[in-house]
């Protein structure tokens, strides 16, 4: 499991919660540090904030979808619906969670 989130509070909360559910997870404060790491496997789940500094979360999702067998992607955002739709237009197989995130919603997605 990989978490791409620039807000340290959100990132830390997600990491702690997911580890409590028994998942192994890594956090990245931006897309660049994620892209410098080993590529994710098809069994991975990537949680990515759509509004990252530098390379956007939507661009990361585009890249992930070019993989032969892409991982599961969950986008998170606090943006208005119109902005979300504009950013994910043309992307496929994406689940979107709105911030603030609840433990119940996250657990149901896993």
TrEMBL record:
**Superkingdom as given in the UniProt entry:** Bacteria
Pfam families, A to Z = Response_reg
Residues that the record marks as modified (4-aspartylphosphate) are 49
Q: What is this protein's record name?
A: Response regulator
Establish whether keyword Lipid biosynthesis is in the entry.
Answer: no
Going by the UniProt record, its keywords in alphabetical order are: Phosphoprotein
List the InterPro entries.
CheY-like_superfamily (IPR011006), Sig_transdc_resp-reg_receiver (IPR001789)
What Gene3D superfamilies does its record include? 3.40.50.2300
GO terms classed as biological process: phosphorelay signal transduction system
Q: Which organism is it from?
A: Alsobacter soli
- Residue ranges of the Response regulatory domain? 1-110
